[in-house]
Amino acid sequence: MTNRTPVIAGNWKMNTDVESGIELATGIVGLSKDVSGVEKIICPPFTSIERVSVAVHGSTIHVGAQNVSANSDGAFTGEISTSMLKGFVSHVIVGHSERRAMNGETSEQVGAKAIAAAAAGLSPIVCTGEDLDVRNAGDAVQFVSEQLEQSLSGFSAWESLIVAYEPVWAIGTGEAATSDQAQEMAAVCRGVIRNLAPEAAYSVRVLYGGSVNSGNVVELLDQPDIDGALVGGASLKAEEFSKLRAAAGE
Ligand code: PEP
To answer: How far is ligand 1, taken at its centre, from the CA of residue 209, in Å?
Structure first.
């Protein structure tokens, strides 16, 4: 047992429009009233953030963004800065594998986003994870160590940081990592933090993400280095997400 408060964060990805986002958030708030002992975050698309943050106001649900620019302002068409998010969100996901793969985000860029988020008082949720080829080659530990180290290079606001280990092969596939695999890699992530900032290694929350649902969350969160979950598909149904959060709080 650690005294790190578990975190359950829902990544809605490019799902929900404004109206259905408000409906989902309202459903989650309604089902969250009795869930304590767990930090709850929902990350809607940018266009819903303002209305969702109003919908959850006064509840224990936090709102996060799915991405942010490392730049503060200027000629960056289509980008969203930390100052545009401030006041609406408390957290921001950076370096999700979908952005690394589809938008070519490098770990250096992810690191710059994490630094910008923390400087603006937002908690970055820094994602890392290997794909299937890397795992099958037996290189997962080395890959994740290097990717996370590069993604945290220059980072110093350790008290704001959350790390999410998300094996690419487990995201959206229905095939979660086993609890042993997830624990091994969460420990690797904590080891990276220990090397960079020994004083922060105990307190930083390390989440697992990849096909988490209400059926497997307890076993995953029972692992000593796993402090919560980043959840995609299962966060889009208020009831399933609430079951999952309740299980995490127990
Ligand atoms: C994710 O996108 O971060 C994720 C973990 O998705 P899923 O839960 O659907 O695998």
So the answer is: 6
pLDDT tens sequence for the chain (250 residues):
578 999 999 999 999 999 999 999 999 999 987 777 899 999 999 999 999 999 999 999 999 999 999 999 999 999 999 999 999 999 999 999 999 999 999 999 999 999 999 999 999 999 999 999 999 999 999 999 999 999 999 999 999 999 999 999 999 999 999 999 999 999 999 999 999 999 999 999 999 999 999 999 999 999 999 999 999 999 999 999 998 888 887 7
Contact 166 CB / ligand 1 (< 6 Å): yes
For a substitution probing ligand 1, which of 8, 42, 165, 230 has the most ligand atoms within 8 Å of its CB? 230
Q: Would you tell me how many other CB atoms lie within 10 Å of the CB of residue 249?
A: 17
Six-digit token pair at 172?
A: 């959206």
Beta bridge partners of 64: 91
* 111 close to ligand 1 (CB < 6 Angstrom): no
CA distance 123 to 169: 26
